[in-house]
Amino acid sequence: MSEPMKLTNLFPPVVVQMVAAGEKTGRVDELLLEAADYYDRESGYMIKNLTTYIEPILIFFLGLMVLIMALGIFMPMWNLIRLFK
What we know:
Blueprint: H1 2-8, H2 13-25, H3 28-84
Helix pairs in contact: 1-2, 2-3
């Protein structure tokens, strides 16, 4: 099982080595579960970091939208004040 995994280059070398070690010891299922748990934790960390990076960007765009809406309201009012002077 480890040789086809190595040839496809779809799996990280660590996983291929774990499968090879599991084949030698007869504990492939346990090592694959450990690898799955590891990558599950890593994906959770990546998602948490991604949300912390996206949050300031979303706040900036929300502020920009509020600014555009406020200018859309106040610009006509300022033009009317200039007309009445």
